[in-house]
Specification:
618 residues, alpha/beta, eight-stranded parallel beta barrel, three-stranded antiparallel beta sheet, 21 helices, 17 strands, 39% helix, globular, disordered N terminus, disordered C terminus, binds 1-(5-O-phosphono-beta-D-ribofuranosyl)-1H-imidazole, binds fe (ii) ion
């Protein structure tokens, strides 16, 4: 069994991917920035007739795994990872360091010595915008400023495509009105952010994060949700969950932890996360009122927002579109309100017979978020939870309100994206994308799947992966993953990996369909390796090299099989790729062209098979 990525108990997974090395590309406008990528080294192509070897260029891929896959980096989870963006933030001179934490709850916990063992070793004092300053990337973009974050993103999105000498056979793609340039420039990043069509989730208190962008003119991104264990045993164990998800390709992580030690768990995750972290603050606010939704108040919520903003959370799901008058629209639904945050707010609205305080205090929330550059992820509290409820009145009424709130967020120059469904059959998916673009003036869309059928519990990463690929093609910017355990239980390590890889392939399928310039080279390289029976290269270029190798070795474990010109699927005699190569060689030898090649070639091959039917090419 391959041990490349096998989980180690109580340890952070740090093994690099096979035949891969971490490379760092420097900025031009901001020479100090070093954009991390993964370079996969390939073996040579051997000419089937002459035996001549031709080298294959290494393939560079987008890398979300952070410093963990770079063996040269020393990491201690108790210190947190490198604070990559700290100096960039300070250099803008718009922030001040606070003397301590502003949140009442936070200070109470800090003074509780029984929690000392859970505390992070270096609790850094938080940063906040100086009075009257707005520190959002949107604000800078509107001033015409290209921040280091923006240049980092431009380099990262291109994946060195412009430096590749190999001519890439690339399909044009159909992008449904998006307009992805042939090369992503820092200025393009700035303009998309300024337009509100893209978001850079990057809290000034999360300098550990590697800049990335959400928007439909960029690579489609995926989010993985993680939660805390019922019994938190160690910092390593909690941190490993996010490290594990990023390793397989999660572009962002949402920490949906609940229970006693949310604050400390989140601290560990944020300090050790190279990707943006999102939360649903109403979950923690609810913990503070012992789970009684009616007892929630704006003051408790506000304190929670500040607590999390000072910790470094990069985006908040805020269910401000669940209006009192929309709640009755869900009464006749098959599955009612399935959003956790949505149901909490619906309950509060009904209990008090008052408008949602997230809605009435929306501009107060904007005032907080702009001081830290926390982005809004406007929650879809009324998303459909079944095929029967898809695209109904409640869902689209809420979407209109989210559009209204998008305008308010933009007025405050707070970055904003929009959450979407849920459960939607294939023929009703496009309407979701079209309506969202219209209602929310092209703010990025972030959907949960959608699941395209309800009949496959145990396989909902697939029912939703189908919907995710479709909506991403239509223009959805971020896909929230669904694991095989959806609707059934808490995902374990394997489920997280399965969910992340499934969403990564859905996102990539959409990048290809949209004609993103950085997408197809990896497919081409993998296909070439496959055709040439470079097995190791085929595994290593894949999203999950370890699984590919395991599957191959299940039937042909011998080392020699890694150079064999067949696999156990078709066996030695019926491999189409092998025959195809032989047909090419035959036509080269016999100088025949066109359809003749195939008839002649196949005839000869058929004779050859009959003669040496039992030959094995090991
Ligand atoms: C994404 C799109 N729509 C919902 N989501 C995610 O669902 C959201 O970002 C969060 O991670 C998760 C739970 O949200 P609810 O159930 O509180 O709405
Ligand atoms: Fe569901």
């Amino acid at each position: 069994k391959n041990k490349d990525t096998a989980p180690q108990q109580g340890k952070i997974t740090r093994n690099p991917f096979p035949n891969s090395k971490k490379i760092y590309v420097s900025g031009k406008m901001h020479p100090h920035i070093k954009v991390a990528m993964r370079e996969i080294t390939l073996s040579d192509t051997k000419d089937s007739m002459t035996g001549k070897l031709t080298p294959n260029e290494p393939v560079t891929v987008y890398d979300t795994s952070g410093p963990y896959t770079d063996p040269r980096k020393k990491i201690s989870v108790h210190d947190g990872i490198e604070r990559l963006r700290e100096q960039w933030i300070l250099d803008r001179s718009d922030v001040e360091q606070l003397d301590g934490f502003s949140s009442k709850y936070c200070n109470e916990r800090l003074n509780d010595s029984s929690l000392d063992h859970m505390r992070f070793s270096h609790l850094k004092k938080p940063l906040r915008a100086k009075a009257g300053k707005n520190v959002t990337q949107l604000h800078y973009a509107k001033q015409g400023i290209i921040t280091p974050e923006m240049e980092y993103i431009a380099i990262r999105e291109n994946q060195r495509i412009d430096e590749m000498t190999e001519i890439v056979k690339q399909h044009k793609g159909e992008d449904f009105g998006a307009s992805i340039p042939a090369k992503i420039t820092p200025e393009f990043v700035r303009s998309e952010v300024a337009r509100g069509r893209a978001v850079i989730p990057n809290n000034i208190n999360h300098p550990e994060s590697e800049p990335m962008i959400l928007g439909r003119n960029f690579l489609v991104k995926i989010n993985a949700n993680i939660g805390n264990s019922a019994t938190t045993s160690s910092i390593e164990e909690e941190v490993e969950k996010s490290v594990w998800a990023c390793r397989w390709g999660a572009d962002t992580i949402m920490d949906l932890s609940t229970g006693q030690n949310i604050h400390e768990t989140r601290e560990w995750i944020v300090r050790n996360s190279p990707v943006p972290i999102g939360t649903v603050p109403i979950y923690q606010a609810l913990e503070k009122v012992n789970g009684v939704a009616e007892d929630l108040t704006w003051e408790i919520f506000r304190d929670t927002l500040i607590e999390q903003a000072e910790q470094g959370v990069d985006y908040f799901t805020i269910h401000a579109g669940v209006l009192l008058r929309y709640v009755p629209m869900t009464a006749k639904r098959v599955t009612g309100i399935v959003s956790r945050g949505g149901s909490i707010m619906a309950k509060w609205c009904l209990a008090h017979h008052k408008e949602n305080f997230l809605y009435t205090h929306f501009e107060d929330i904007c005032e907080i978020l702009k001081q830290y550059d926390v982005a809004f992820s406007l929650g879809d509290g009324l998303r459909p939870g079944s095929i029967a409820d898809a695209n109904d009145e409640a869902q689209f009424a809420e979407l209109e309100t989210l559009g209204e709130l998008t305008k308010l967020a933009r007025k405050h120059e707070v970055q904003c994206f929009i959450e979407g469904p849920g459960h939607v059959p294939m023929h009703m998916i496009k309407e979701n994308m079209d309506k969202q673009l219209e209602a929310c003036d092209e703010a990025p869309f972030y959907t949960l799947g959608p699941l395209t059928t309800d009949i496959a519990p145990g396989y909902d990463h697939i029912t939703s992966g189908i919907g995710a690929a479709m909506i991403a093609w239509y223009g959805c910017a971020v896909l929230c993953y669904v694991t095989p355990k959806e609707h059934l239980g808490l995902p374990n390590r394997d489920d997280v990996r399965e969910g992340v890889v499934t969403y990564k392939l859905a996102a990539h399928a959409a990048d290809l369909a949209k004609g993103h310039p950085g997408a197809q080279h990896r497919d081409n390289a993998l296909s070439k390796a496959r055709f040439e029976f470079r097995w190791e290269d085929q595994f290593n270029l894949g999203l999950d090299p370890e699984k590919a190798r395991e599957f191959h070795d299940e039937t042909l474990p011998a080392q020699g099989a890694k150079i064999a010109h067949f696999c156990s699927m078709c066996g030695p005699k019926f491999c189409s790729m092998k025959i195809s190569q032989e047909v090419r060689d035959f036509s080269a030898e016999n100088k025949v062209e066109g359809t003749e090649v195939f008839s002649k070639g196949m005839e000869e091959k058929s004779e050859e098979f009959k003669e040496k039917g039992s030959e094995i090419y090991l």
